[in-house]
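Reviewers of the previous submission asked for a worked example of the structure-prediction workflow described in the proposal, so we include one complete record here. The input consisted solely of the amino acid sequence. No template or homolog information was supplied to the procedure at any stage.
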Amino acid sequence: MFFRKIHEGYNNLSNTQKIIANFLLSDYSKCAFLSIKEFSDLLNVSSASIYRFSCKLGYNGYPEFQKAVQYELQKELKPMKELTSSIEDPNNEINILKAAVDMNINVLKNMYSEYTYQNFALVIDKIVRARKIYIFGLRSSFCTAYYFYFMLKQFMDNIILLTLGYGDVYDNLQKINEKDLIFFISFPPYTKETIELLGYAKEKKTCTVGITDSKISPLALNADIPIIAKQSSKTYSFVSVMTILNAIVIAVGKKNKNKTIQLLKENQEYLTKKGVYYNINKKRR
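From that input alone, the workflow returned the following C-alpha cells.
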C-alpha cells in the first residue's frame, strides 16, 4: 500500500516531493523512527515539505505516514528471517557447517569501523565510572545479556541483570539516575518492552547503551551510545555481538589488571573448594 501510493502519484509530485519519494523508494527504513525534523534535515528539505508529502499520499500528517513506513519495515523483520533463509537456501546443502563458518567470518571482517571503535571506547569509560550497571535483553537476546552479566560479575560487584518475571523491572529501576549505566541488547524483531524500558531510562537521565544490528534500529536511534553488531542476512548468528561483549569485558578488566586477576583467582578457588567444577583428577572407584 505504502509503495503503491508513491508509484501511483509520482508524476504529480513537485520536485522537492520527488526527492523525498526517491529516497523512500531506495532506503525507506531510515525514516521509520526519525522525527519530522530529523527526516527533513537528512534530506535537506523543510519539515513543511515532509508534511505536505505525507498529505499528498493521503495520510493525515507525518505521524500517520510514519506508521505506514513502520508497518512496511515490520513485515520485513519477521522472526527468524535469517534462519528461514538459510534453511530454504539450496546452495548450502553440501557442507552446511563450512558455509556457516564462512558467513560468520565475513560478518566479523565487516563488523569493525571507526564509528564502532569510538563508541566502544566511550562505553568502557562509562562502565568504569558507573555507580551501578544494568543489563537487559529479551527472548534470543537474553542469552547474550546473561553471558555479558556473568562475565562482568566475575570481577565487578555492581552488575545487575534485569529480567521480566523476577520482581518488576520498573521497581528495580525506580532509583536509577545519571550515575548509572544501562545496556539494552536487541535484534530484529525488536521487542516492545526493550524500547519502552529504554525510554523510561532516558526519562530518568540514565546513560543508555544500545547493542543492536543497525544504525537505524530503534535502539540505535534512541540510545545515548549505540554499538552496532552487524549480522549476516543469510544466517541467524550472535557471533558479532558476542565478539563485542567479550572485547568489552577484556577492556574493562584491563583497567585494573592486578585487581581483576586477583578477583578471578579468588573466585576460581572458592568455586573449586565448593565442588562446583568437576574434578578430572579425582580417582575412580
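The longest helix spans residues 239-255. We consider this example representative of the routine output the project will generate in years two and three.
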